[in-house]
């Protein structure tokens, strides 16, 4: 299945590895920040609602 | 219905919540299909050997590194002219995505350049303007982080974005202004130049579409996070006033 990359195998695979790591890192950071902010907003809105009542 | 309705954070949150699952699925499918096609199903180039497979990451990421800045420019202009907060937050949200794509373009370019040009880096007009664009991204994010008042930060980062657009423009067109340099003009195009063969162009176009969709997905997600962060700041300020 794996294509024969010949003498440039390390070059090609390192380019793909670096890109995948950077993209997955960005996606993970985006999801983590989003989830954290959503949770924090829910807490603060619940507190604000409690104060209003 | 006007496009300016989406400047309302509530409307933006509603619409983006509906759009996100679809666009995320489309982005993943397009990107995986393009990369699979390019990596596994295309032949080696007669000159560059298997390193040609780097094109499926390098070209789309470099295009989106530049494209992201132009999107930020449009959003910044909307902020400066119409004062819509969502546009300022969208520009802020796009910066880390553009930075990552620019970094991928720089890294894959260096890895590709070493066996093809015999060097990791050259002070070529296109490479240099692209590096300066990357530094502008870092400066843009640092400026957002350095200013406490959100509107002032949006104003100043918008001005910085206008200035940085020169380098985004140069990154794209420097090869036409300066004829020296290692980097070729364009990989895809309708006129002349060192265009890639159709064997590589079809999966490359799919990868470009995948990167565009990934960019839109991430910017929507991050803009939603920024809107929530803005709402948290407003609620905390209200609590402090009430106390």
Query: Class by helix and strand content of chain B?
Result: mainly alpha
* Sequence of secondary-structure elements of chain B: HHHHHH
Strand content of chain B: under 5%
Largest sheet of chain A: none
Q: What is the first-to-last residue Cα distance of chain B?
A: 41 Å
End-to-end Cα distance of chain A: 64 Å
Helix content of chain A: over 70%
**What is the CA-atom radius of gyration of chain B, in angstroms?**
20 Å
Number of helices of chain B: 6
Q: Can you give the mean pLDDT of chain A?
A: 93
Number of strands of chain A: 0
The overall strand count of chain B is 0
- Which of globular, elongated, flat, extended, rod-shaped describes the shape of chain B? globular
- The helix-strand sequence of chain A is H
Domain tally of chain B: 1
Q: How is the CATH topology of chain B named?
A: Four Helix Bundle (Hemerythrin (Met), subunit A)
Protein architecture, described:
The complex is a heterodimer of chains A (53) and B (243). Chain A has a domain at 29-53. Chain A contains one helix and no strands. Chain A has one helix spanning 9-52. The longest helix of chain A has 44 residues, at 9-52. Chain A is rod-shaped and about 70 Å long. Chain B contains six helices and no strands. The longest helix of chain B is centred in the C-terminal third of the chain and has 45 residues, at 198-242. The termini of chain B are far apart. Chain B has one domain: Four Helix Bundle (Hemerythrin (Met), subunit A). Chain B is mainly alpha-helical and 243 residues long. The A-B interface holds A 1, 3-9, 11-12, 14-16, 18-19, 22-23, 25-27, 29-31, 33-34, 37-38, 40-41, 44-45, 47-48, 51 and B 39-40, 44, 49-51, 53-54, 57-58, 61, 96-97, 100, 103-104, 107-108, 111-112, 114-115, 214, 218, 221-222, 224-225, 228-229, 231-232, 235-236, 238-239, 242.
């Amino acid at each position: 299945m794996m294509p024969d990359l010949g003498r440039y195998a390390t070059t090609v695979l390192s380019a793909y590895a670096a890109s995948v790591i950077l993209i997955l890192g960005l996606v993970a950071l985006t999801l983590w920040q989003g989830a954290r902010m959503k949770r924090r907003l829910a807490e603060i809105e619940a507190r604000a609602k409690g104060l209003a009542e | 219905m006007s496009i300016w309705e989406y400047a309302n954070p509530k409307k933006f949150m509603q619409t983006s919540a509906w759009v996100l699952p679809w666009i995320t699925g489309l982005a993943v499918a397009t990107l995986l299909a393009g990369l699979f096609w390019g990596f596994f199903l295309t032949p080696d180039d007669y000159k560059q050997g298997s390193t040609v497979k780097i094109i499926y990451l390098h070209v789309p990421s470099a295009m989106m590194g530049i494209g992201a800045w132009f999107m930020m420019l449009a959003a910044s202009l909307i902020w400066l002219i119409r004062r819509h907060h969502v546009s300022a937050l969208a520009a802020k949200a796009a910066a880390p995505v553009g930075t990552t794509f620019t970094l991928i373009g720089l890294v894959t370019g260096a890895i590709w350049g070493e066996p093809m040009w015999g060097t990791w880096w050259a002070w070529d007009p296109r490479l240099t303007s692209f590096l300066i664009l990357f530094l502008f991204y870092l400066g843009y994010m640092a400026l957002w982080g350095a200013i406490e008042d959100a509107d002032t930060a949006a104003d100043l980062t918008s001005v910085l974005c206008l200035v940085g657009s020169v380098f985004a423009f140069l990154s794209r067109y420097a090869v036409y202004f300066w004829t020296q340099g290692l980097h070729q003009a364009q990989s895809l195009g309708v006129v002349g130049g060192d265009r890639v063969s159709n064997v590589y162009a079809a999966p490359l176009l799919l990868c470009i579409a995948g990167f565009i969709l990934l960019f839109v997905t991430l910017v929507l997600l991050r803009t939603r996070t920024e809107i929530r962060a803005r709402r948290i700041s407003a609620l905390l300020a209200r609590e402090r006033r009430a106390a």
